[in-house]
Each structure stands twice: as structure tokens, then as C-alpha cells.
Inverse folding.
């Protein structure tokens, strides 16, 4: 059953002369992991922000969960309740999360409970502790956010997203600040949590080999449009990567999954 369906959606940043996403249609099944790839500026992050209602649709239809997402945001009490319900359904981990000064890791992750409770209690504290433990961050609980490395902040931001107890998790470059070991560990943890909780994961990714190792399907974008969609083996071919990225690569298939190797010109 599809938990996300979008039909011919177009998304434009405020005051931008051209759309960042144009005429895109796709779907995501409940419990699926979809990776979105493409060159810089192709619209990956914009698409995630449309899914998260950070950006509104210019046209098209977007269904998330049980209802359509309005083309333009409304105001008033009813809209506030709708946003609160939406925040319990969808969590976004941005590429460069805003980290408030003066907060501990625990208190920052506790902010993820806001859609569920205006006055967090013991049950909320236990959920935060579980999320920190899931991401192996429990020993960071009392540390200040300003004491963390960029990679540690990314994982704390992910813990905050999981503390919302969403059905859909949107990840914008979840491994951009991580070395290969921590990137692999983080993606393994996300996959384990996804299977345990039945989460749907949509991630904008740059590393094509990591993209192939984790996830069920790949959506490749270019110029704001979907150009290919399918399994990693179907999408991440040397010909398609060369065409879309203007890059020389060799693609080897190991254990059924593509490994992308840059090829020097000389």
C-alpha cells in the first residue's frame, strides 16, 4: 500500500524564476526505503521539503498517509491541528540542522516530542532515551550540542526525528558529514530501526555506492525532473551515470548491488 503518492507535482522556491521540481510523479510503499539521487541542484532536497510541507506545491497532487497535502498552506486553528497531526506522521532530518546554543543533547532530542505533548513527561523521557540508545548516543546525553562534531550533530538530529515517532522519515544527505565507517554504521542502524518499527524512509543521497547498498528503490533526478526509477541495479548503470552526472565511471555488480568506481581520464 502506497503511503506517499505524487502526481505531476511542481515545486518552486519563493521568488525563483523557474521551478526546482517539475511534473514529477512517483509513489512510496509503506515500509519502503526510497533513495533519491542526481547531480547538485537537481531538486532532491526540494522534493524532500515538499514532502515535509516546508515548501508548498505550485501544482499537482500529493497524498501522504490518509490525506492530500494542500497546494498552499492554510491558517487558523484547524490548520494548526492539521500541522500537528502531520508532524506526528512525517519527520525531516535536514542536511544542515539548526542547532540551538545552550541545549544538551537530551533536551534537543526531547524537542522531537513536541507534536505529541506540550508538557513532556516521564513517558517522553523514556522515548528520548530509547532513541539515543538506538543510535548509540546514550553517552552523549548530557553533553552540550556545541561540543559535538558535525557527524555527531547529524546523528543527534536523526535521534530527534525518530523521537517524533513518525511513520515517514525524510533524510537529506544523512551521511554527508560522516566518514565511511560511521556512514555505514548509521545507515545500518536506520535500516534496522526501519524494519523494527515499519518506518518508511526517503533519503536524498550523493554517494551512489552507499545508495546501492541501502534501500529498496532509486529515483534519479536531473533538472528538476525524474529521469529514471527502479532498483539500484536498474538505475545505477555506467551509461546512465555518465549521461546524468557527466562522469566517467565503471560499475561493478557485487552480490547483486552496483559498486560505482570513478575512472580517471588518463
Amino acid at each position: 500500500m502506497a503511503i506517499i503518492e505524487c502526481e505531476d507535482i511542481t515545486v518552486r522556491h519563493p521568488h525563483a524564476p523557474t521551478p526546482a521540481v517539475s511534473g514529477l510523479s512517483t509513489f512510496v510503499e509503506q515500509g519502503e526505503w526510497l533513495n533519491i539521487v542526481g547531480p547538485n541542484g537537481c531538486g532532491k532536497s526540494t522534493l524532500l521539503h515538499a514532502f515535509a510541507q516546508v515548501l508548498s506545491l505550485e501544482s499537482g497532487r500529493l497524498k501522504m498517509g490518509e490525506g492530500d497535502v494542500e497546494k498552499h498552506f492554510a491558517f487558523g486553528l484547524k490548520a494548526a491541528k492539521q500541522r500537528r497531526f502531520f508532524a506526528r506522521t512525517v519527520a525531516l532530518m535536514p542536511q544542515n540542522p539548526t542547532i540551538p546554543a545552550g541545549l544538551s543533547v537530551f533536551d534537543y532530542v526531547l524537542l522531537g516530542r513536541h507534536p505529541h505533548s506540550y508538557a513532556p513527561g516521564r513517558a517522553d523521557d523514556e522515548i528520548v532515551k530509547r532513541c539515543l540508545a538506538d543510535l548509540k548516543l546514550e553517552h552523549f546525553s548530557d553533553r552540550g550540542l556545541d561540543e559535538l562534531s558535525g557527524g555527531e550533530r547529524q546523528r543527534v538530529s536523526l535521534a530527534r526525528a525518530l523521537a517524533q515517532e513518525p511513520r515517514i522519515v525524510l533524510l537529506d544527505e544523512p551521511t554527508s558529514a560522516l566518514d565511511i565507517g560511521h556512514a555505514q554504521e548509521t545507515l545500518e542502524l536506520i535500516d534496522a530501526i526501519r524494519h523494527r518499527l515499519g518506518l518508511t524512509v526517503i533519503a536524498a543521497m550523493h554517494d551512489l555506492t552507499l545508495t546501492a547498498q541501502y534501500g529498496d528503490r532509486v529515483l534519479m533526478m536531473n533538472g528538476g525532473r525524474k529521469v529514471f526509477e527502479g532498483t539500484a541495479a536498474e538505475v545505477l548503470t555506467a551509461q546512465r551515470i555518465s549521461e546524468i552526472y557527466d562522469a566517467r565511471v565503471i560499475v561493478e555488480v557485487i552480490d547483486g548491488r552496483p559498486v560505482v568506481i570513478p575512472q580517471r581520464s588518463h
User: Anything to note?
Assistant: The chain has a mean pLDDT of 89. The domain at 2-98+166-262 is CATH 3.40.50.300 (Rossmann fold). The chain has one domain: 2-98+166-262.
